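Example 9 (inverse folding). The structure is encoded as follows.
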């Protein structure tokens, strides 16, 4: 026995270049991740194995299986969908006013702390 406490887990370092992005599943399970500025909310979810973000088209905005609800406190900072994204959202499941396709949300430094909710299922 070394006398040092064991530490099992991971340290999440966040900041302007690695904003913290939290995904909350429909069952309430929360996944805290580090996004990379310039990547997307979808890529961060896939890299971190967040359940419910399918992303069949790999970010080409042609599948709507990366649908998320932007948390109410973040809708202004994230902004709204483009016309092309809005058209694709027609194919998503249970669309709400805060719906976005996560592959179309480019992570910026000001997104540190962003919270998105994953729908019960993808369309
Ligand atoms: Fe297909 Fe976002 S990954 S629309």
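The amino acid assigned to each position is listed next.
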């Amino acid at each position: 026995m070394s006398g040092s406490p064991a530490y099992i887990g991971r340290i999440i370092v966040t900041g302007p270049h690695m904003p913290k992005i939290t995904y909350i599943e429909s069952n309430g399970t929360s996944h805290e991740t580090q996004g990379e500025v310039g990547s997307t909310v979808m890529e961060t979810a896939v890299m971190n194995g967040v359940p419910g973000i399918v992303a069949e088209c790999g970010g080409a905005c042609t599948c709507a299986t990366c649908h998320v609800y932007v948390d109410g406190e973040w809708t202004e900072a994230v902004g709204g969908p483009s016309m092309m994204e809005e058209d694709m959202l027609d194919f998503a499941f249970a669309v709400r006013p805060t719906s976005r396709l996560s592959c179309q949300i480019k992570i910026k430094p000001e997104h540190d702390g962003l919270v998105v909710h994953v729908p019960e299922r993808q369309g």
